[in-house]
């Protein structure tokens, strides 16, 4: 399992990962089986923020609950045992089918990779191979078949591209997420209501635009978003600004609570250096 000294330990706890949250969620819900599972077995659209705030820390726990991350992975697997049904195409699905479960994992791995690549630094080929190999350790800890899993980075790129071009569709759940992203709910659990009311309107469209800029082009076409050269230039400028300013952000705001707890418990910080509890 990824632990101190790994790339996952270094990067997977960064709050910058939330910049890719809409992308990862949308790609998941565009998978017919995943979209149906969320629509039929989840209260996501009744309490979207609450579900996200429950799910993300558990997923991070597979890394940051080290050395007991495998226990967290098994707990996540158990959450999905009962999720089965028929999707909108009339096909049966189960959340633990590897075609479904690995796609969910793939979108989370892609978000981690894109966070580093877009908002920090261009990764070397060796880094990409290493990050992907670590992600396979995470996936296998769930105890789900790996028969559909690409063996290496280049295989993953081909798999991801094929899924975006040939398998993803605008499911009802995905359409709901697009509407949610453009017009967020009236409350957010972590922000005082008066402040959230001030921020909600002015920030919704820019945050959706930020998310559109991270989507693969075939997915943009499916959701009906046009991306211009000017959009790309502006997006690149924003990414550079985030990268330049990020070292100035205080430690407690740079890393999620689950990551900080893991660093403190292990006595090893994100860069692998021994650290005291902060």
Automatic annotation (TrEMBL):
This is ER-bound oxygenase mpaB/mpaB'/Rubber oxygenase catalytic domain-containing protein. Pfam families: MPAB_Lcp_cat (PF09995). It comes from Actinophytocola xanthii. Residues 9-243 form the ER-bound oxygenase mpaB/mpaB'/Rubber oxygenase catalytic domain. It comes from the Bacteria. GO terms for molecular function: oxidoreductase activity. InterPro entries: MPAB/Lcp_cat_dom.
